[in-house]
Amino acid sequence: xxxxxxxxxxxxxxxxxxxxxxxxxxxxxxxxxxxxxxxxxxxxxxxxxxxxxxxxxxxxxxxxxxxxxxxxxxxxxxxxxxxxxxxxxxxxxxxxxxxxxxxxxxxxxxxxxxxxxxxxxxxxxxxxxxxxxxxxxxxxxxxxxxxxxxxxxxxxxxxxxxxxxxxxxxxxxxxxxxxxxxxxxxxxxxxxxxxxxxxxxxxxxxxxxxxxxxxxxxxxxxxxxxxxxxxxxxxxxxxxxxxxxxxxxxxxxxxxxxxxxxxxxxxxxxxxxxxxxxxxxxxxxxxxxxxxxxxxxxxxxxxxxxxxxxxxxxxxxxxxxxxxxxxxxxxxxxxxxxxxxxxxxxxxxxxxxxxxxxxxxxxxxxxxxxxxxxxxxxxxxxxxxxxxxxxxxxxxxxxxxxxxxxxxxxxxx
Length: 413
Known about the structure:
This protein has 13 helices and two strands. By secondary structure, it is mostly helical. The longest helix is centred in the N-terminal third of the chain and has 39 residues, at 9-47. The chain crosses the membrane at residues 26-46, 58-76, 83-104, 124-145, 157-178, 198-219, 231-250, 256-279, 291-312, 324-341. Keywords: Membrane, Transmembrane, Transmembrane helix.
């Protein structure tokens, strides 16, 4: 007979299973709402007369926004107690509302369309969701990643301040829209909208504090949490590089810039989904190393190719006109340099950023050469133990050798 006030183990398990089931149901309900909003927005954009080029961008934008809700629902399905999943579900609904409100308002106000019912409400909802999405992604995500809890209790103050400032920003938006609609004064609306924008800018110190807590978490974390944070950093870096590269080198209205921006948006939820959902994480260090190698390799090969083409054209301009020789020579030179440059860049990156891995590879290379020359089993055993100790640095190493005279011989270090 169980004591009063204390739940039996079977009841606790049933309540836990019910809570898990309810959490999964809520997560997939949120996912369904976000998918319905994004799909409706995509249909409205096509009804607005978008061409094939715009259609590809619209579909890719919808997929990028859908990644947030999908990753959130998957995280909650496996780990209902992880706040990151709920953050992504909320952002999924927020991006769905923003996408739908933009499409609905645009369709109802241009090309001579009659003003559709509820356009003002949807426009208001879209503007309201922006402060929430920004606060969730720029403050709460780095503050709570990857386990859904702040680093220490003291860091909760950052979350509380962000929640208060976001609530004030949303409240100011309501004052701007409702007060402007009642008074009919455009200056009133503009004033309060500007106050809300200033309040959003004031969240920048909270964003910096959240990323500082993430850096401290990385320093104190164990291997798995470090791998998860590296995946987040990898996604953020790709996002930033694509966005900055698009702004600096491409026209804002070009199809390529629109596609790259959509791909950049996808990088964040996908990298976080991999970091939380995968039990055996991929070797992110190897992925980062390969990314650095091929980025530098591509840049060097492009510079080499352009230098050779223009240099040879300048040299041969008095001899031949429109000769394909510079292009052919440059292409062959770049092809010949590919492997040697890749190996050189890989060695530089391994020495600079992955020194331990580089030293281990050098030790293993020396050990492989020793295997061909050493015939003394005792010396070889000592060398093998030394190699294992140097490369893997375990607390204890044991080597068992099987001989004909005795079944087992142990040599421990």
